[in-house]
Known about the structure:
Layout: E1 13-19, H1 26-35, H2 37-42, E2 45-50, H3 57-69, H4 78-89, E3 94-101, H5 106-112, E4 123-129, H6 132-137, E5 142-145, H7 151-162, H8 168-182, H9 189-199, H10 205-212, H11 219-222, H12 228-240, H13 243-251
Parallel strand pairs: 1-4, 1-5, 2-3, 3-4
Helix pairs in contact: 3-4, 7-8, 7-9, 8-10, 9-12
Protein name: NB-ARC domain-containing protein
GO biological process, one term: defense response
Domain NB-ARC: 9-166
Amino acid sequence: MLLAGSSQEARNVDVISLVGLGGIGKTTLAQLAFNDAKVTDHFEKKIWVCVSEPFDEVRITKAILEQLEGSTSNLDDLQSLLQRVSQSINGIRVLLVLDDVWTEDHRHWEQLKPSLAGCARGSKILVTTRKGVVATMMGTDHRINIETLSDDACRSIFNHVAFHERSNDERERLTDIGNKIASKCKGLPLAAKVLGGLMQSKRTREEWEDVLSSELWRLDEVDKDQVEKKIFLPLHLSYYDLPSVRALSSKI
Protein backbone atom coordinates (compact mmCIF):
# COMPACT_ATOMS: atom_id res chain seq x y z
CA MET A 1 0.00 0.00 0.00
CA LEU A 2 2.84 2.40 0.81
CA LEU A 3 4.62 1.51 -2.42
CA ALA A 4 1.55 1.80 -4.65
CA GLY A 5 0.72 4.85 -6.71
CA SER A 6 -1.89 7.39 -5.65
CA SER A 7 -5.45 6.05 -5.53
CA GLN A 8 -6.88 9.48 -6.35
CA GLU A 9 -6.43 10.95 -9.83
CA ALA A 10 -6.78 14.51 -8.56
CA ARG A 11 -4.21 14.15 -5.76
CA ASN A 12 -0.56 13.20 -5.43
CA VAL A 13 -0.84 12.12 -1.79
CA ASP A 14 -2.76 9.24 -0.19
CA VAL A 15 -3.61 9.21 3.52
CA ILE A 16 -3.37 5.82 5.26
CA SER A 17 -4.62 5.53 8.85
CA LEU A 18 -3.81 2.85 11.42
CA VAL A 19 -6.63 2.88 13.97
CA GLY A 20 -6.75 1.01 17.27
CA LEU A 21 -6.50 1.11 21.05
CA GLY A 22 -3.46 2.53 22.77
CA GLY A 23 -0.85 -0.18 23.29
CA ILE A 24 -2.14 -2.32 20.45
CA GLY A 25 0.92 -1.82 18.27
CA LYS A 26 0.07 0.99 15.83
CA THR A 27 3.34 2.85 16.32
CA THR A 28 5.35 -0.38 16.15
CA LEU A 29 3.75 -1.28 12.82
CA ALA A 30 4.37 2.22 11.51
CA GLN A 31 8.02 2.01 12.59
CA LEU A 32 8.46 -1.33 10.83
CA ALA A 33 7.08 0.14 7.62
CA PHE A 34 9.08 3.36 8.00
CA ASN A 35 12.37 1.47 8.44
CA ASP A 36 11.75 -1.12 5.71
CA ALA A 37 14.51 -1.07 3.07
CA LYS A 38 12.07 -1.09 0.15
CA VAL A 39 10.20 1.86 1.64
CA THR A 40 13.46 3.74 2.16
CA ASP A 41 14.42 3.16 -1.47
CA HIS A 42 10.96 4.15 -2.75
CA PHE A 43 10.68 7.56 -1.09
CA GLU A 44 13.07 10.46 -1.59
CA LYS A 45 12.30 11.78 1.89
CA LYS A 46 10.92 10.11 5.01
CA ILE A 47 9.58 12.22 7.86
CA TRP A 48 8.38 11.08 11.29
CA VAL A 49 6.50 13.43 13.62
CA CYS A 50 5.03 12.47 17.00
CA VAL A 51 1.90 14.65 17.12
CA SER A 52 0.09 13.80 20.39
CA GLU A 53 -1.85 16.52 22.17
CA PRO A 54 -2.19 19.38 21.58
CA PHE A 55 -2.00 19.47 17.77
CA ASP A 56 0.60 22.24 17.65
CA GLU A 57 0.82 23.35 14.01
CA VAL A 58 4.03 25.33 14.52
CA ARG A 59 5.86 22.48 16.27
CA ILE A 60 4.66 19.90 13.74
CA THR A 61 5.48 22.04 10.70
CA LYS A 62 8.90 22.89 12.12
CA ALA A 63 9.61 19.17 12.69
CA ILE A 64 8.63 18.41 9.08
CA LEU A 65 10.80 21.22 7.73
CA GLU A 66 13.83 20.25 9.81
CA GLN A 67 13.67 16.66 8.54
CA LEU A 68 13.22 17.84 4.96
CA GLU A 69 16.17 20.23 5.09
CA GLY A 70 18.34 18.38 7.59
CA SER A 71 18.91 21.43 9.76
CA THR A 72 17.29 23.29 12.63
CA SER A 73 14.88 26.06 11.66
CA ASN A 74 14.77 29.38 13.50
CA LEU A 75 11.37 30.25 12.07
CA ASP A 76 8.41 30.50 14.45
CA ASP A 77 5.80 32.03 12.17
CA LEU A 78 3.41 29.33 10.94
CA GLN A 79 2.81 30.79 7.48
CA SER A 80 6.55 31.18 6.86
CA LEU A 81 7.12 27.60 7.98
CA LEU A 82 4.32 26.28 5.76
CA GLN A 83 5.72 28.15 2.78
CA ARG A 84 9.18 26.66 3.35
CA VAL A 85 7.70 23.17 3.66
CA SER A 86 5.80 23.68 0.41
CA GLN A 87 8.99 24.75 -1.35
CA SER A 88 11.12 21.94 0.09
CA ILE A 89 8.59 19.21 -0.63
CA ASN A 90 7.70 20.29 -4.16
CA GLY A 91 8.15 17.56 -6.75
CA ILE A 92 9.63 14.88 -4.47
CA ARG A 93 8.08 11.63 -3.30
CA VAL A 94 7.59 11.78 0.45
CA LEU A 95 6.47 9.49 3.26
CA LEU A 96 5.17 11.49 6.22
CA VAL A 97 4.23 9.64 9.41
CA LEU A 98 2.00 11.53 11.84
CA ASP A 99 2.09 9.38 14.95
CA ASP A 100 -0.50 9.51 17.74
CA VAL A 101 -2.98 12.05 16.36
CA TRP A 102 -5.79 12.95 18.77
CA THR A 103 -7.47 16.14 17.59
CA GLU A 104 -10.87 15.87 15.92
CA ASP A 105 -10.85 19.54 14.90
CA HIS A 106 -10.37 19.62 11.12
CA ARG A 107 -9.17 23.23 11.25
CA HIS A 108 -5.79 22.15 12.59
CA TRP A 109 -5.27 19.71 9.72
CA GLU A 110 -6.64 22.11 7.10
CA GLN A 111 -3.86 24.58 7.93
CA LEU A 112 -1.13 22.02 7.36
CA LYS A 113 -2.52 20.01 4.44
CA PRO A 114 -2.08 22.54 1.57
CA SER A 115 1.68 22.73 2.16
CA LEU A 116 1.94 19.01 1.36
CA ALA A 117 -0.02 19.09 -1.89
CA GLY A 118 2.95 19.78 -4.17
CA CYS A 119 4.90 16.60 -3.48
CA ALA A 120 5.32 13.99 -6.20
CA ARG A 121 2.63 11.48 -7.10
CA GLY A 122 2.81 8.36 -4.96
CA SER A 123 3.60 10.25 -1.76
CA LYS A 124 1.96 8.93 1.40
CA ILE A 125 0.83 10.26 4.77
CA LEU A 126 0.66 7.48 7.38
CA VAL A 127 -1.41 8.36 10.46
CA THR A 128 -1.69 6.46 13.73
CA THR A 129 -4.66 7.26 15.95
CA ARG A 130 -6.93 5.73 18.57
CA LYS A 131 -9.99 7.41 17.08
CA GLY A 132 -11.82 6.46 13.92
CA VAL A 133 -13.25 9.97 13.73
CA VAL A 134 -9.70 11.33 13.42
CA ALA A 135 -9.03 9.07 10.44
CA THR A 136 -12.20 10.37 8.80
CA MET A 137 -11.34 13.99 9.58
CA MET A 138 -7.95 13.63 7.90
CA GLY A 139 -9.51 12.41 4.66
CA THR A 140 -8.22 8.86 4.93
CA ASP A 141 -8.04 6.91 1.67
CA HIS A 142 -7.13 3.58 3.30
CA ARG A 143 -8.09 2.75 6.88
CA ILE A 144 -6.53 -0.22 8.65
CA ASN A 145 -8.16 -1.26 11.92
CA ILE A 146 -5.63 -2.89 14.26
CA GLU A 147 -7.43 -5.57 16.25
CA THR A 148 -6.51 -7.01 19.63
CA LEU A 149 -4.42 -10.17 19.73
CA SER A 150 -5.80 -13.63 20.37
CA ASP A 151 -5.36 -15.03 23.88
CA ASP A 152 -2.72 -17.44 22.56
CA ALA A 153 -0.72 -14.63 20.96
CA CYS A 154 -0.92 -12.54 24.12
CA ARG A 155 0.26 -15.48 26.24
CA SER A 156 3.12 -16.05 23.82
CA ILE A 157 4.39 -12.48 24.25
CA PHE A 158 3.96 -12.59 28.02
CA ASN A 159 5.72 -15.96 28.34
CA HIS A 160 8.57 -14.92 26.05
CA VAL A 161 9.35 -11.96 28.32
CA ALA A 162 8.41 -13.35 31.74
CA PHE A 163 10.25 -16.67 31.35
CA HIS A 164 13.34 -15.32 29.63
CA GLU A 165 16.40 -17.26 30.89
CA ARG A 166 14.32 -19.26 33.37
CA SER A 167 14.70 -22.97 34.01
CA ASN A 168 12.21 -25.53 32.73
CA ASP A 169 11.30 -26.23 36.35
CA GLU A 170 10.28 -22.61 36.90
CA ARG A 171 8.28 -22.61 33.68
CA GLU A 172 6.36 -25.73 34.70
CA ARG A 173 5.74 -24.35 38.19
CA LEU A 174 4.48 -20.94 37.08
CA THR A 175 2.92 -21.44 33.63
CA ASP A 176 -0.63 -22.02 34.88
CA ILE A 177 -0.76 -18.85 36.95
CA GLY A 178 1.16 -17.02 34.22
CA ASN A 179 -1.61 -17.83 31.76
CA LYS A 180 -4.14 -16.31 34.14
CA ILE A 181 -2.06 -13.15 34.46
CA ALA A 182 -1.62 -12.94 30.68
CA SER A 183 -5.40 -13.11 30.21
CA LYS A 184 -5.61 -9.76 32.02
CA CYS A 185 -3.90 -8.11 29.03
CA LYS A 186 -7.14 -8.12 27.01
CA GLY A 187 -5.28 -8.79 23.77
CA LEU A 188 -2.97 -5.77 24.04
CA PRO A 189 0.67 -6.54 23.14
CA LEU A 190 2.10 -3.61 25.11
CA ALA A 191 0.28 -4.78 28.23
CA ALA A 192 1.60 -8.33 27.72
CA LYS A 193 5.15 -7.04 27.33
CA VAL A 194 4.95 -4.78 30.39
CA LEU A 195 3.43 -7.50 32.56
CA GLY A 196 6.01 -10.01 31.35
CA GLY A 197 8.76 -7.59 32.33
CA LEU A 198 7.19 -7.14 35.76
CA MET A 199 7.17 -10.90 36.36
CA GLN A 200 10.81 -11.44 35.34
CA SER A 201 12.05 -10.48 38.81
CA LYS A 202 9.45 -12.53 40.70
CA ARG A 203 10.67 -16.02 41.52
CA THR A 204 8.08 -17.47 43.88
CA ARG A 205 4.55 -18.60 43.19
CA GLU A 206 3.37 -16.39 46.04
CA GLU A 207 4.72 -13.30 44.28
CA TRP A 208 2.92 -14.27 41.08
CA GLU A 209 -0.31 -14.86 43.01
CA ASP A 210 0.03 -11.42 44.60
CA VAL A 211 0.06 -9.84 41.13
CA LEU A 212 -2.89 -11.93 39.96
CA SER A 213 -4.97 -10.94 42.99
CA SER A 214 -3.91 -7.27 43.05
CA GLU A 215 -6.64 -4.80 43.99
CA LEU A 216 -5.73 -2.74 40.93
CA TRP A 217 -7.37 -5.29 38.61
CA ARG A 218 -10.71 -4.42 40.19
CA LEU A 219 -10.53 -0.97 38.63
CA ASP A 220 -11.44 -2.71 35.40
CA GLU A 221 -14.76 -3.73 36.92
CA VAL A 222 -15.77 -0.22 37.99
CA ASP A 223 -16.61 1.15 34.56
CA LYS A 224 -16.66 -1.15 31.56
CA ASP A 225 -16.84 1.82 29.18
CA GLN A 226 -13.40 3.08 30.16
CA VAL A 227 -11.40 0.72 27.98
CA GLU A 228 -8.20 2.69 28.51
CA LYS A 229 -8.01 1.24 32.04
CA LYS A 230 -7.23 -2.11 30.47
CA ILE A 231 -4.21 -0.56 28.84
CA PHE A 232 -2.79 1.23 31.85
CA LEU A 233 -3.41 -1.36 34.58
CA PRO A 234 -0.19 -3.28 33.80
CA LEU A 235 1.68 0.03 33.84
CA HIS A 236 0.18 0.85 37.24
CA LEU A 237 1.22 -2.56 38.54
CA SER A 238 4.78 -2.05 37.29
CA TYR A 239 4.90 1.42 38.84
CA TYR A 240 3.76 0.23 42.24
CA ASP A 241 6.28 -2.60 42.10
CA LEU A 242 9.25 -0.20 41.84
CA PRO A 243 11.43 -0.47 44.99
CA SER A 244 11.26 3.28 45.65
CA VAL A 245 7.47 3.31 45.39
CA ARG A 246 7.13 0.23 47.60
CA ALA A 247 9.35 1.89 50.21
CA LEU A 248 7.32 5.09 50.08
CA SER A 249 4.02 3.21 50.32
CA SER A 250 5.17 1.38 53.43
CA LYS A 251 5.68 4.73 55.19
CA ILE A 252 2.25 6.15 54.40
